[in-house]
Write a structure and sequence with these properties.
The chain has a domain of 159 residues: P-loop containing nucleotide triphosphate hydrolases (Rossmann fold), CATH 3.40.50. A hairpin with a 2-residue loop joins β4 and β5. It has 236 residues and is of the alpha/beta class. The structure holds adenosine-5'-triphosphate. This is Methionine ABC transporter ATP-binding protein. One of its GO terms (cellular component) is plasma membrane.
Length: 236
């Protein structure tokens, strides 16, 4: 199992009740998982725990056999860069860096990713260019600062950055929310092709149930989370 969650309790600071109470959840290497649940049910929070961005107050989360809680913050950063491509809901691009340099970032932080990128495309820059072209980003945009791109373009830059250097795990949080239907379908084809070729595990969060059928496994977060769910506000 490449991702493992065991007896996890996670509470946001200042909150009286926990957001996540998960006894067991795991993902096998190479599996593709569609994670769904209502807004506010804790999907992004769970992804942050899988990525070791936050640590649970109780229990363990493991990526590639390593416990996040057993590592210091520098070791966590290294392990994350080696093992994980993460497409965040808010993209998390560095706004003043060029598009190309944003895509190259994981290779700066991970020798493993840099080696894989060189092996695939000859040089790091060639690899970054490959992924930007695959994402349909016009060459004229590659030297521009990331902040100068549209939201849909930034989303695709974030995806190129997640895929460079064939990370063993790809985590994607609503990666198609700013894409039109045509781009969304091409993006999904490319994501599955890239993960298939690299043998990468894919954990994907979306509200778009039309995408669910593409995945080998669908997981409802409320079904694995024992924490009391927030009440949805309903119109009177
Ligand atoms: N940084 C934070 N500080 C405090 N509480 C937070 C923080 N981030 C999220 N939460 C709370 O945790 C709960 C779960 O939020 P989360 O973003 O994980 O849900 P989600 O299922 O991803 O929602 P959506 O589908 O709307 O993106 C919410 O009640 C939210 O208010």
């Amino acid at each position: 199992m490449i991702l493992q969650v065991r007896d996890v309790v996670f509470r946001w600071p200042g909150q009286a009740s926990p957001c996540l109470l998960i006894d067991a959840f795991s993902v096998a290497a190479g599996e593709s998982v569609f994670l769904h649940g209502p807004s506010g049910s804790g999907k992004s929070t769970l992804l942050s725990l899988l990525a070791g961005v936050f640590l649970p107050q109780q229990g363990e989360v493991l990526l590639a056999g390593k416990r996040w809680s057993a590592m210091g913050s520098a070791a966590r950063d290294r392990h994350r860069a080696d093992q994980l491509g993460y497409i965040f809901q808010q993209f998390n691009l560095l706004p003043y860096l060029s598009v190309l340099d944003n895509v190259l970032l994981p290779c700066r932080f991970s020798t493993r990713r840099a080696q894989a990128a060189r092996q695939a495309h000859g040089t790091l820059v060639a690899s970054a260019r490959h992924w930007l072209a695959a994402m349909g980003l016009p060459e004229a945009s590659w030297q521009r600062p990331a902040r100068a791109l549209s939201v849909g373009q930034q989303q695709r830059v974030a995806a190129a950055r997640a895929l460079i250097g064939a990370p063993p795990v790809v985590i994607a949080d609503e990666p198609t929310s700013a894409l039109d239907e045509d781009r969304r379908d091409r993006f999904m084809d490319l994501l599955f092709q890239a993960c298939g070729q690299a043998g990468s595990t894919l954990v994907f969060v979306s509200h778009d149930q039309r995408l669910a059928a593409r995945f080998a496994r669908q997981v409802s977060l409320p079904a694995i989370n024992r924490a009391a769910q927030p009440q949805e506000v309903t119109e009177a």
